[in-house]
């Protein structure tokens, strides 16, 4: 059973920064892809960024240059550094891991005030 637990969300003013963390049960090096998704009220869940087990990263156009995804295999952690936050970044952010199945965390709320 894979468990993913996000933390680090909160309320921040526009232009500010937050760092989200995702703690995984067991070794994350086994996962093919790790990623962050977000879902704003009334909208579909969308990809924010992902990283594969070769450390290749991929970002949504809306966050390129502002967000950075990283992984720490020794600590079984995945991070999302979010800088220059905008009100439109407000959403629940979810950690996602892909192995034979897809696993999701419970989400963490990020609210950016204007």
What features would you describe in this structure?
By secondary structure, this protein is an all-beta fold. The protein is 0% helix and 54% strand. It has no helices and eleven strands. The strands form two sheets. Strands 2, 4, 5, 6, 9, 10 and 11 form a seven-stranded mixed beta sheet that branches. A four-stranded antiparallel beta sheet has the order 1-3-8-7, with no helix packed on it. The model has no long low-confidence stretch (mean pLDDT 96).
Essential attributes:
mainly beta; four-stranded antiparallel β-sheet; globular; single chain; 0% helix
Topology, element by element:
Layout lengths: L3 E4 L2 E4 L4 E7 L8 E7 L6 E7 L4 E3 L7 E6 L4 E6 L8 E8 L3 E3 L3 E6 L1
């Amino acid at each position: 059973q894979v468990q993913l637990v996000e933390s680090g969300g909160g309320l921040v003013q526009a232009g500010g920064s937050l760092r989200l963390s995702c703690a995984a049960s067991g070794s994350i090096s086994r996962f093919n892809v790790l990623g962050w998704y977000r879902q704003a009220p009334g909208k579909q869940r969308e990809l924010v960024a992902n990283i594969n087990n070769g450390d290749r990263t991929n970002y949504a156009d809306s966050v390129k240059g502002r967000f950075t995804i990283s992984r720490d295999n020794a600590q079984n952690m995945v991070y999302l550094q979010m800088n220059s936050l905008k009100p439109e970044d407000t959403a629940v952010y979810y950690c996602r891991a892909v192995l034979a199945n897809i696993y999701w965390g419970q989400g963490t709320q990020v609210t950016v005030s204007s």
